[in-house]
């Protein structure tokens, strides 16, 4: 007697949150996950805990997310999109007050100020993304920053733009992003944020041949003004003695 094959159950169709009510539920779920991550870690995060924190049933949660990994993926992508918008806005707007290098500071503040001011959540999601080899989600942001730097260069003294080739723009973009990723990934700040900002600005300015002197930036190909040495009292007296002879 031949047994009939038992058909496998059809996979649950995930709802696409197009309506405002459905989008609100997704936002509640993601915000609940962020709050739990701010107090715990990735291992302690469960779909049941997220549903309870969000005030929705576990069945409702599964209508939009397959599992915990899907929640983390959506959360990471959402935050990367917001980070990219802030970082690109700091580069595409008018040059802010503050002189050369100010846009580099704006980019850093955009990155470190992401994730709703929750550095712990930022670090955990960064570890999650990099640990799973999903650094590609940051590539569009890096490519946009590199293209903007290559097209516009870096502003030097007097508002003059210092041009930058595609290769230089690529190197500078990934040098700065590497520092910021390492900074965010640490549980404790390795140095004061202002000191890191200053170091990144010096890196960017010197990379394109602009040096800071006495708090003001100048082009490296423009010689520094000569420094006059003051004569000592003994030297002045000796010179006066020679003049009388």
From TrEMBL:
- Which terms are listed as keywords in the entry? DNA-binding, Transcription, Transcription regulation
Comp. bias (Low complexity): 232-245
Protein name in UniProt = TetR/AcrR family transcriptional regulator
Region described as Disordered: spans on this chain: 214-245
Q: Which InterPro entries match?
A: Homeodomain-like_sf, HTH-type_TetR-like_transc_reg, HTH_TetR
Coiled coil: which residue ranges? none
Any Pfam family the entry gives = TetR_N
Which superkingdom? Bacteria
Per the record, DNA-binding region residues lie at 46-65
- HTH tetR-type domain segment(s): 23-83
């Amino acid at each position: 007697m031949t047994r009939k094959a038992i058909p496998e159950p059809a996979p649950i169709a995930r709802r696409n949150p197009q309506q405002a009510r459905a989008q609100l539920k997704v936002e509640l779920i993601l915000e609940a996950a962020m709050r739990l991550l701010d107090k715990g870690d990735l291992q302690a995060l469960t779909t049941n805990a997220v549903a309870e924190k969000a005030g929705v049933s576990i069945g409702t949660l599964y209508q939009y997310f397959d599992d915990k990994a899907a929640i983390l993926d959506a959360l990471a992508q959402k935050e990367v999109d917001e980070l990219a918008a802030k970082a690109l806005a700091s580069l595409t707007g008018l040059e802010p007050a503050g002189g050369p290098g100010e846009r580099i500071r704006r980019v850093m503040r955009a990155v470190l100020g992401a994730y709703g001011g929750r550095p712990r959540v930022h670090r955990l999601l960064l570890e999650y993304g990099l640990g799973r080899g999903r650094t590609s989600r940051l590539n569009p942001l890096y490519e946009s920053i590199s293209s903007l730097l290559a097209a516009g260069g870096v502003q030097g003294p007097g508002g003059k733009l210092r041009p930058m080739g595609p290769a230089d723009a690529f190197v500078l973009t990934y040098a700065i992003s590497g520092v910021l990723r390492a900074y965010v990934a640490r549980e404790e700040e390795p140095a004061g944020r202002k000191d890191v900002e200053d170091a990144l600005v010096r890196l960017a300015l010197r990379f394109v041949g602009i040096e800071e002197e006495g708090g003001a930036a100048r082009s490296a190909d423009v010689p520094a003004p000569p420094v006059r040495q003051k004569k000592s009292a003994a030297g002045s007296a000796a010179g006066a003695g020679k003049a009388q002879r």
